[in-house]
Write a structure and sequence with these properties.
The protein is α+β, with helices and mostly antiparallel strands. It has 9 helices and 5 strands; from the N terminus they run H-H-H-H-H-H-H-E-E-H-E-H-E-E.
Length: about 240
C-alpha cells in the first residue's frame, strides 16, 4: 500500500541564523570586567583591545592590541607613538590610529585641566603626571615652561623650543623675557629625554643654573627643572643639583 505523501509547502525554508562573531563573547566579558572591577583589573593589552572596539567594530582587536604592546611596550607608549611608526603596523588602519591619538589628546587635556585648577606646588603629583603625559613619549626633545604667580598658581604653560632626538636649544634670556611679559614670579622648567632615561646631563644642569642667575636679580624664582622620560622623571631640585 502506498502511503500518501504530505503536501509540499510553498513557503521557503527558514534561513540559518548567522552565527555571532567568535570575538563577540570575549568583548562582552572584557566590558563586564571593566565595569565591575575597574580598569586596573585589565592588562594594558586588554585595555587597548577595548580602546580599539569603536574603531574596529567588525574585527577581533585582540591580535592588533598584542602586536602594538609588543612593539611599543605599554598602553601609554602605544597611544603616544608617532603616527608614522603606527602606520608601520600591519592592519592598523587610519581609524584605529585616529582613535589612539584621540585617547592621547584626551589624556593630555584632562591632565592640563587638573593642573590649571590646582595650586601647582601643592599638587606636585598632578604636575609630574601632566608633564609625563605631555612629553615623556615624544620622539623629539621639547623644552616646556610653567609660569607661576606669587601664589604659585599656573599662569601659562608653553613649549618654548622643540629640538632633535637628543638636543633642544634653550636661550635663558628668552625664558626670562617671557616670564616678565606674563608677570610671572616663578618658573618650573620641564624637558624630556626621548631616550627614556631622565638622568640630567651636565648641559641640563649648566643651562638651569644660567636661567637661575638671570632670574634671581629680577625677583623670579626657579622652583625646579623636571626631566621626564619613559622610565620616570628626575628633579634637579630633588637631586640637589640646583
Amino acid at each position: 500500500m502506498l502511503a500518501a505523501m504530505p503536501a509540499r509547502s510553498s513557503a521557503p525554508p527558514d534561513k540559518p541564523k548567522p552565527s555571532e562573531p567568535h570575538y563577540h563573547g570575549h568583548r562582552e566579558r572584557l566590558r563586564e570586567r571593566f565595569y565591575a572591577a575597574g580598569p586596573d583589573a585589565l592588562s594594558d593589552s586588554e585595555l587597548l583591545e577595548m580602546a580599539l572596539f569603536a574603531a574596529l567594530p567588525r574585527r577581533d582587536t585582540k591580535p592588533l592590541a598584542k602586536t602594538l604592546i609588543k612593539t611599543f611596550g605599554s598602553f601609554a607608549e602605544v597611544v603616544h607613538a608617532p603616527v608614522a611608526r603606527l602606520r608601520e603596523i600591519d592592519g592598523i588602519g587610519e581609524a584605529a590610529i585616529n582613535q589612539l591619538k584621540l585617547i592621547a589628546a584626551a589624556t593630555h587635556r584632562v591632565a592640563k585641566g587638573e593642573v590649571n585648577s590646582r595650586n601647582a606646588l601643592s599638587s606636585w603629583t598632578e604636575v609630574i603626571d601632566y608633564c609625563r603625559s605631555s612629553m615623556a613619549f615624544a620622539d623629539k626633545e621639547q623644552f616646556r615652561l610653567l609660569f607661576l604667580d606669587k601664589r604659585n598658581q599656573l599662569i601659562a604653560d608653553e613649549v618654548q623650543q622643540t629640538g632633535t632626538v637628543d638636543h633642544t636649544p634653550v636661550y635663558p634670556r628668552e625664558v626670562i623675557k617671557r616670564a616678565l611679559e606674563l608677570s610671572a614670579t616663578a618658573l618650573i622648567l620641564v624637558h624630556n629625554h626621548p631616550s627614556g632615561d631622565p638622568t640630567p646631563s651636565q648641559a641640563d644642569i649648566q643651562m638651569t643654573k644660567a636661567i637661575i642667575d638671570i632670574a634671581k636679580p629680577l625677583g623670579i624664582a626657579v622652583h625646579d627643572h623636571i626631566i621626564v622620560g619613559k622610565s620616570g622623571h628626575a628633579s634637579l631640585r630633588g637631586m640637589r643639583l640646583i
